[in-house]
Amino acid sequence: MPTINFHDVTKDFAVKDGGFLALDHVGLDIEDGEFVTVVGPSGCGKSTLMNIAAGLLDATGGEVLVDGVPVSGPSPERGVIFQQYALFPWMTVAANVEYGLKVAGVKKEERRRRAREVIELVGLTDFADSLPKTLSGGMKQRCAIARAYAVDPKVLLMDEPFGALDSLTRVRMQESLLDTWGRDRRTVMFITHDVDEAVFLANRVVVMAARPGRIHTVIPVTLPYPRTEEMRLSPEFAALRAQVWHAVHHQPAPLEGIAS
Ligand SMILES: Nc1ncnc2c1ncn2[C@@H]1O[C@H](COP(=O)(O)OP(=O)(O)OP(=O)(O)O)[C@@H](O)[C@H]1O
């Protein structure tokens, strides 16, 4: 059984002159421990798809199953990370990371232990008592990742998490995320606009098409893990990048009768 199963998902948004079909019968299985990236032109429905999996939006048709159970709302088993860090500015890194555990009713001692563990995992131990405003963008995002990890989610849903970072920090964050993922092989669905990022991280790259949002093609990434800096410069990487780039930039024609 796949960990995340998008079963015939359709999303129709009500707009003033009728409906806008944002997702049209999307089917996708993400297996246990897989790292899947999703790319596609702006407006093809990437965030809508992720928000439905997160339980933040309802599908108009079809459903998303996580471990065979239909998603009916947000759940701690699905850790969600957005581009904007969404940290509480008045709380230290440690308090931000502990917050979800506190809400879940975890006792203080256990909260402290778990927070220390995940803060170390993302390399922020020296900043555990710092406020978010004193951290760089990359450190804030690592704090957000630690917060998602703290509650031990079954899957991670990441929507352009590194989109606001400079390119060097972004590359470091990709490496650090893969390092963490390599240790626990949590199932990840990761949305990005960046073709290099999509290839570097993934087992499979899902390329979506727009009008209506649908899956255009799925490209397996045959590079082994751990992924290294040298791999980014390899001919195999270049070939995969070209394949994904081509799929993103040569989209199928919009379907007839789709409202805009
Ligand atoms: N609440 C809404 N009401 C009406 N239309 C919406 C709503 N949310 C999204 N849409 C439309 O649905 C389509 C898909 O939006 P979505 O944000 O999922 O795309 P995306 O692929 O994530 O885009 P981007 O890459 O620019 O972030 C877009 O055309 C958008 O305008």
Automatic annotation (TrEMBL):
SMART domains reported in the protein's UniProt record: AAA (SM00382)
Q: Which InterPro entries match?
A: AAA+_ATPase, ABC_transporter-like_ATP-bd, ABC_transporter_ATP-bind, P-loop_NTPase
Q: Name one Pfam family in it.
A: ABC_tran
Membrane-crossing segments per the record: none
Where does the source fall among the domains of life? Bacteria
ABC transporter domain location, by residue? 4-235
Which UniProt keywords are given for this protein, alphabetically ordered? ATP-binding, Nucleotide-binding, Transport
Gene Ontology MF, one: ATP binding
- Which SUPFAM superfamilies does the annotation name? P-loop containing nucleoside triphosphate hydrolases
Give the PANTHER family listed for this entry: ALIPHATIC SULFONATES IMPORT ATP-BINDING PROTEIN SSUB (PTHR42788:SF13), TAURINE IMPORT ATP-BINDING PROTEIN-RELATED (PTHR42788)
Give the protein name, as stated in the record.
ABC transporter ATP-binding protein
Q: Could you read off the lineage of the organism from its UniProt record? A: Bacteria, Bacillati, Actinomycetota, Actinomycetes, Kitasatosporales
